[in-house]
Structures are given as structure tokens and as C-alpha cells.
Amino acid sequence: MKRVLQNLKVPDRVKRAVLDIAGDSGILLNLHVNGFRTGPSIYQKASMRDGEWVQVYDELRNIYGSVFGKGKQTVLDYDVGGITQKLAEKAKVQPKQINFQEYITQLNRKRMLGEKAADDAESRGMKLLDDFYETWEKRLSSTGLVGSLAHYKNKSMLLDDDIEYRQGIVSELRKKKNLTETQKDRLSHNQNILSRLKAQKKDTDMQIKAMSDQRLMPANEEKFHPRYWKFDAIKSRREEFFDILFDWYSKNPFVYTVDKDSGALVRTRLSSNPDDISKRVNDTINKILNLDDVTLAYGTSTFSSNLIVLDEAIEKLTRRDKLKADVVKLRYFAGLTIEQTAEVLGSSPATVKRCWSYARAWLLQEIDK
User: Fold this and answer.
1) Least C-beta-crowded within 10 Å: which of 2, 83, 140, 198?
2) How far apart are CA 369 and CA 365, in angstroms?
């Protein structure tokens, strides 16, 4: 990361994106000392969010201990309550009781199904879980990771702003006489973007009209609760998981994709050929296990080490082909779209798309060495 921040050729927008993703306390402190103000990075926020769950976890351990007469047992901050419980059961020091994991599972099941707590301890535990997950439901809804009416209304307003901005550019260019070739390309480019934005706006407004302000919950469930994949179980029972997904994809062959020209959502029927379904299933499982993710395909490597490997590969790509490296920096670090990247670099979207496809394949090969 330091190499990216110290590189005078890297745009400030890219550096800001890197800081927003992975900046640590030391770097941000130095920025503040030098008059640059920036908030906590995603890396720092993730640590703070972990702390929220640790606090809930500790309180749940105390509740569990008050019910079963076992306090939170730790050695050097490692929770060893489960180990001591098994040893005690083996030695027949005490009768077998429900363990902590089973207790939390029971609380979660009751709160999700809307069942009443059996006692005050269960009520307090369920309230802790309710508060924690309700907070996360709001956070995920605000970013669109969980669909909600509020998210689509906010998206509609943002699209209005983008449409107004692009419409202004188009209107100004249309007022001019005898446009240069560069101006003609810019006009065409912004007209295409404007068309896509309007199509997205139309779809978003239709979604708002179709939705009520009620949460869409799984059958028989009353409370929000996230689902997590058990990677070990998927790996050890992959064939069984394959059969489940194969059956689902066979019965549900439709997906919604964004049309490249209009930007509108289009319902597409996928192939019913068994070989094609099998490929789709395997691709899905690989995505769940992160087997096809360039930045997560390094076994037990940490995020920071992955970033260093990627940074070194991008530097090598810069010496080989600067344009392709710039496309990667703008697309990967700054999060720009193909069209936005083309506008920044003064290239056509087609050129940027070719560079992006080549660069991703080259980086993957380079990182895997």
C-alpha cells in the first residue's frame, strides 16, 4: 500500500480509494497531522464491528453461566468453556447439560420463529440478539445488500442526480455548432450513459411501486437473521450440495441480467441442458468457496498480504503496459465503471473493456506464480 501512496503517477482518487479500503490508524493519524481529514477505513470499521459482536458474545456467555452455573472460562483470553465442559462430563463430575453453542442456537430459533422465552434469562438473551441483528439489518438495508423500499427510494434520488448531470453535458454540447470529433465522441458517450441511467431509473421506480414497506422474510420466520455458509461442510459434502443446487437450477432456469445497451433488467431463460446446469452449479460452489476470487485465492493469507501481492503485480503490469495498469487502478481501487474509466483516461469504452479483460487474466496468472 505504501508503494501506491508514494507513487506520484497514481491519481489522488485511487490513493483515496486505497485508504478508504485498507488505511490503518498510523497512516490516518499522519494524514490528520498534515491537515488531511478522512474517516475510518473499511479495515478499521470491520475491527470495530467485530468488537460489537464480542460484547454481545460475552454478555450471552454470562447469561448462559447464570442459568447452568458455569461462568465464562478463559485462558489468555481464549474461551475454553467447551473443553472444560467435555472433560467434566467425561469424568462424570456433573451431568451432561446443554452446551453454549446449543443454547445460542435455541435462542436464535425461538426469536426467528416468534416463540416466547421460557424465562427471564432467555428473554434477555433473545433481546441481545434481536438488538444486534436489527442494527445490522438497518446497515445492510441502507447499502442495498438487503432489499428495502428505503434503499430503492434513495437509489432513485441518486439516479435523478446522475441523469441531471449527464443531461447538462448533453445539452451544452448540443448548443454548440460545428463540433470537433472529440466533442462528437463525448456527446455520443454521454448520450449512451444518459439512456442507460433513464432505463435504470424506470426499473427502480417500478420496483418502488411494486414494493410495500414490509420486510420480505423466509417462511415461518419473524426476525431478521443472516445465513452463513459452512465451508468445511460444503467441501466435505460437495456432491450432496451439488445435487441440491442442480435440482433448484433445473426448476428455476430464469435470471435477471442488466442489458448492456439500455441498462434495464431483462429476464433471461438459461439453458436446460444438464451439462450447462452442471457447469453453473460448479461455478456457484466455487464462488461460495472463493475459489475464483483473485484477491482471496491465497489460502490463509491475510488481506494486507494479498494487497501487497496485487500491488507488486500491478507495478509489473505498469512497466509492461501503462494503459492496462491504469485501467486496473481505476476499476479495482477507485471502483469506476467502464464508462467512467474511459472518460478519465480519454479512451473509448470498448478499449477500456479490452484492457480490463486482458489485465484481469494477466494479473491472475502473475499472482498464481
Assistant:
1) 2
2) 7
Domain boundaries, the chain: 1-28+293-369, 44-143, 149-210, 231-292
Residue in this structure with the C-alpha cell 445435487, named with its chain if needed: 243
CA dist., res. 115 & res. 117, Å (int): 7
Query: What are 84-96's pLDDT values in tens digits?
Result: 445 444 444 443 5
pLDDT in tens, 161-210: 989 999 999 999 999 888 888 888 889 988 988 988 888 888 888 777 76
Phi, psi (degrees; rounded to nearest 5) at 141? -65, -40
Q: What is the pTM of this model?
A: 0.48
Bridge partners (DSSP) of residue 254 are 269
First to last CA, the chain: 21
DSSP H helices, 263-321, are 274-288, 303-320
Do the beta carbons of residue 324 and residue 269 sit within 8 Å? no
**Which set of grid coordinates corresponds to residue 193?**
450513459
Cell of 82: 467447551
DSSP three-state, residue 223: coil
Dist CA 101 CA 85 (whole Å):
12
* Cα–Cα dist 315/323, whole Å: 12
Bridge partner residues of 265 (DSSP)? 258
